[in-house]
Amino acid sequence: xxxxxxxxxxxxxxxxxxxxxxxxxxxxxxxxxxxxxxxxxxxxxxxxxxxxxxxxxxxxxxxxxxxxxxxxxxxxxxxxxxxxxxxxxxxxxxxxxxxxxxxxxxxxxxxxxxxxxxxxxxxxxxxxxxxxxxxxxxxxxxxxxxxxxxxxxxxxxxxxxxxxxxxxxxxxxxxxxxxxxx
Length: 182
Description:
Elements: H1 2-15, E1 24-28, E2 44-51, E3 57-63, E4 68-70, E5 78-83, E6 92-99, H2 102-107, E7 113-118, E8 125-130, E9 140-148, E10 151-159, E11 165-172, E12 175-177, E13 180-181
Parallel strand pairs: 4-12
Antiparallel strand pairs: 1-3, 2-3, 2-11, 4-5, 5-6, 6-7, 7-8, 9-10, 10-11, 12-13
């Protein structure tokens, strides 16, 4: 099942790798002149803080397109698929998330897979925490999903196998389901 999920997200990632497929702007702490001005009424807002590693810093991206999903990789699953392929090596370009048990995540879970990428999708620097199973465990962390109406806020705190800390918040204004957008 895990291979199917990974293949599914790889296919989604490849289909979204065109820089025009997701309208987003990214800001970083060191790029004060750049501002995120896109509407977030339909998509999401992602804030990532990396501590350690070559991409240390805080990054924010907004997407007018829906990036969050429920039930697409399993009955109780939740995910996020944000990718922009037109970014430079130091720019935040991707956050992929898979949570197998949405109900557990509402109470807080240590079981999830998150990858944060910088630069071009196929040649990017990435940081991964995979705590879905003991067999594939890489790093450690905790994830919580809070609901407020249709809006869902995902909070991730963790550390990669190499000791890079990831702190991320994803605010999903809408969520894609098998039955459409909610």
